[in-house]
Amino acid sequence: MPKEKVIFIVGPTATGKSEAAFCLARKIKGEIISCDSMQVYRGMPIISNQPPAVLLKKAPHHLLSVISPQKEYNVSQYRQDALKKIKLILKKKKTPVFTGGTGLYMSILVDGIFEIKAQNQALRKKLYQQAQKYGSDFLHDKLKRVDPAASAKIHPHDTRRIVRALEVFKLTGKPISILQQQRKGLADEYDVRIFCLNLARAKLYQRIGQRTEKMFKQGLLKEAAKLLKLKLSKTSSAAIGLKELKGYFDGRCGLAEAKAQIIRNTCLYSKRQLTWFRKDKRIRWINIKENDTPKKIGERLWKKLS
RNA sequence: GCCGAGGUAGCUCAGUGGUAGAGCGCGGCCCUGAAAAGGCCGGCGUGGGGGGUCCGAUUCCCUCCCUCGGCA
Predict the structure, then answer these.
(1) What value does the mean pLDDT take over residues A27-55?
(2) Whole-model pTM?
(3) DSSP assignment string, A189-214
C-alpha cells in the first residue's frame, strides 16, 4: 500500500504561499493546515498575515486563530495539534496541505522532536537570572560539565539554548544532546513532499514593502492598538509589527519610521527563513516570477506531485 | 559675498603623521518545547577634487568644489 501524501508549501514571507496552497488544495481535495507560529493566535489576522477571508470561506483551513494571544505556545504543542489534524484529514480521505513560513515547525513535524516533557518556567527563570548575573559563558561552562556534546554545539552567547539544555538536564537527568536523537517524524510514515516558493531577493523585499503598506490599509494600527492593550504572551508579542508600533504609540518614533522598521525587520526575517529552508535538501524549489498567478503556481505544484 | 561647522562604508558617525573603524544596513550561517524568537561570521572603502610639506598624509598646509547654520 502506498504511503499517504502530506504536502508542505513553505517559503519566505510574502511569496504568496496561502494563495498557491489554496489553489493546490482545490485541485487535489486537500485541507490546509497552517504552519505558522503567529497565525495560531486570535485577534491578529492582519499582523500575522492570515489568508484573506475569501479563501478561508472556500476551503477548510486549520490551526488559524486557535489560541489566545495571552497564552504561550510552542513547537511541541504545535506538533501535537498538527498531528491530530493530519489524522482527521486523512480519515476523510483528503490530503493535508501545510503552508506557512515557520521553518522549525515544519522540521519538527517532518523529523520529529523528543517526546519527554521537560519544561519548568520557574527553573527557566532562575537560569536566566543566573545568566544575567554571571554571564552566559558561566552557564555554558556549567553545561559543558553535564553535556559536552550540547555545549560544543551551542555558542557560549546563545543564552536561550544554553538555558534550555540545562533545563532539560536538570529535569530529566539526561543530556539534551542524547534526547534530541530520539525523533520520529512524518517522513518515516508518510509520503512527505515539501515545496518552497521563492522569488528573486530584490523582488521579495519589494513585495514585503508593498504588503506592509497593504497591512496598514487593512487596519493594522487598529489591530495592533487593541492587542497592545492586552497582556500578551512572550510568544505572541514577538510578532513583527507589535514592538515597532508600540514605539509609535508611545511617541518614541514617527509612523513613517515605525513602518520602515517593520519592513526592515520583515526582510531580515525572510532572509533567516531562506537560510532555514536552503539547508533542507528534501525541499523542491519553486522559483516564481512577479506575474505568476496563484493558479499557475498551484498548477505547477500539482504537476510536480505526480 | 562674508563668518562658522563639516565632507571617511549603502546610512549615521568615530578616530589616527605609518594606507581606517563602530552601530545600523547588506550578504552568509546556526537552530529540537519563546522560532516573526535567539545566536554566530563577513568590511562590502579611489577617506570630496587638485597641489604642497614629509621617508610616509585620511590626518598638517594651500586651493577649488559641495553641504549645513549664521550675517548680509
Answers:
(1) 97
(2) 0.92
(3) TSEEEEEEEE--HHHHHHHHHHHHHH
The nucleotide whose C1' lies nearest the CA of A234 is B34
End-to-end C-alpha distance for chain A, whole angstroms: 16
**A274 CA, B11 C1': separation in Å?**
25
Complex ipTM over 0.95: no
What chain A holds in terms of domains, given with CATH numbers, is 5-113+184-305 (3.40.50.300), 121-179 (1.10.20.140)
Q: How far apart are CA A4 and CA A30, in angstroms?
A: 12
Q: A196-206 pLDDT, tens per residue?
A: 999 999 999 99
As ranges, strand B nucleotides with an atom below 7 A of a protein CB are 24-40
Q: Are A190 and A244 in contact (CB under 8 A)?
A: no
